[in-house]
Design a protein that fits this description.
Elements: E1 4-7, E2 10-13, E3 18-24, E4 34-39, E5 46-51, E6 57-59, E7 67-72, E8 77-82, E9 91-98, E10 110-113, E11 117-122
Parallel strand pairs: 2-11
Antiparallel strand pairs: 1-3, 3-8, 4-5, 4-9, 5-6, 7-8, 9-10, 9-11
Length: 123
């Protein structure tokens, strides 16, 4: 069973930065695409960023230039560096592992999810 554990959320002022991390169990972490999604109150869960097994990345337009996704296959972790945070970035952020051979922005590509970490950006 794969387990994903997020950390690094918190309260930050607008313009500030946070770094989220996700620790994954399993010995074949490097073979899978990983993603970050977020869900604000009353809204659907939405795609934020993803990285595939080769290190290619993709972002939703609203975070391009502000967020950076990265992975450390030796430590089985994926991170999301968030800079220039805005109040509209406030949400619960979820780490997810994709099905083998898939990755990207679609929620249906992911079959394992973490419990989420709260990010609150004050104005």
């Amino acid at each position: 069973q794969v387990q994903l554990v997020e950390s690094g959320g918190g309260l930050v002022q607008a313009g500030g930065s946070l770094r989220l991390s996700c620790a994954a169990s399993g010995s074949t972490f490097s073979s899978y695409g990983m993603g970050w999604f977020r869900q604000a109150p009353g809204k659907e869960r939405e795609f934020v960023a993803a990285i595939n097994w080769s290190g290619a990345t993709t972002y939703t337009n609203s975070v391009k230039g502000r967020f950076t996704i990265s992975r450390d296959n030796d430590k089985n972790t994926v991170s999301l560096q968030m800079n220039s945070l805005k109040p509209e970035d406030t949400a619960v952020y979820y780490c997810a592992r994709a099905n083998i051979g898939t990755w990207g922005a679609s929620r249906t590509a992911y079959n394992y999810w973490g419990q989420g970490t709260q990010v609150t950006v004050s104005s």
